[in-house]
Amino acid sequence: MLVEKLVADGQPVRIFDLPFMDFDGLEDRDGIDIVKGDITDAAQVADALKGVNSVVHLAALLPPNSERDRDRTFGVNVGGTENIIKAMEAGAQDATLIFTSSISTYGNTMDEKPPVRVDHPQSAIDIYADSKIVGERMVRESSLNWIAMRIAGIMVPAFMEPPSPWPFVAEQRVEMVHRDDVVDALFASVGAPEAANKVLNIAGGPTWQMHGEDYARDFYGFMGAPFEDVDYRESPGWVDWYDTEESQCLLQYQNRSYQHYSDEMHAIVEALMAE
């Protein structure tokens, strides 16, 4: 989705991703250059970054896979980020690095007064968050122009199995963000000099600020599943409500309310039932 928005805006895009990924619809198109490789290979990363103006760094091992092998997760999430930084410092010093971090880096803030601001201390409660804290620190300490986006849990409008467990307890404050709003934020960050060298919370905004039970109950309602089957974490997770005033002012990405997402989910389920 991000590639399509950039190409439609007249910006040439180079995609760097693993060889076995699905590039269907992106190959053999004007304005799109696909380079297949591995972020943990420094030489391949350096070749892929030649001549770029911006780098949108989305590569990472995510939970639950990130929690199975700390060394592998740090090899990808931290080592890969280090490869990008070194390659840019050597050959693309004027480019901006847009680093996708995570609100998980704040840790458990359930007993604090919301909203969580970007100056809040970071405290990992899992391997993924720990890797993002280290990677983000490397980005901020580099000689590059950078933007660090601490992105909230992303809600995808699609029919899918509920998570087990949900990444929160029932009474916990939760603010998710629509997938397409994240795409809009990333798109807006490319060529946004006013956002340079800033850490930004990326979350859905006021209409998405609810509690864990609200999200779970609605999701089970969309899917027509019994709410009694919901499986929460045994202890508070790393979700909360966030201060997104600056990120929204700079990037204008909060374009889809929670009601918009709810309407999408109802329409998707209705369409499936009609088949």
From TrEMBL:
Record GO terms (molecular function):
oxidoreductase activity, acting on the CH-OH group of donors, NAD or NADP as acceptor
Annotated ranges, domain 3-beta hydroxysteroid dehydrogenase/isomerase: 2-142
Enumerate the transmembrane spans. none
Report the record's Gene Ontology biological process terms.
steroid biosynthetic process
Can you tell which superkingdom this protein's organism belongs to? Answer: Eukaryota
SUPFAM superfamilies named in the record: NAD(P)-binding Rossmann-fold domains
Q: Which family does it belong to?
A: Belongs to the 3-beta-HSD family.
Can you name this protein? 3 beta-hydroxysteroid dehydrogenase/Delta 5-->4-isomerase
* Species annotation: Geodia barretti
